[in-house]
Amino acid sequence: MDSLFGDKLEKLLSNEQTMGKIREIANSLSENGGPEGAPPPPPPPPPPKREPPPDCPPKNDLRPPPSRIGGYCAILSAIKPYLDAERRERVDKMIRVLKIAETAKTLMGI
Question: Is the pTM of this model over 0.70?
Answer without folding.
Answer: no
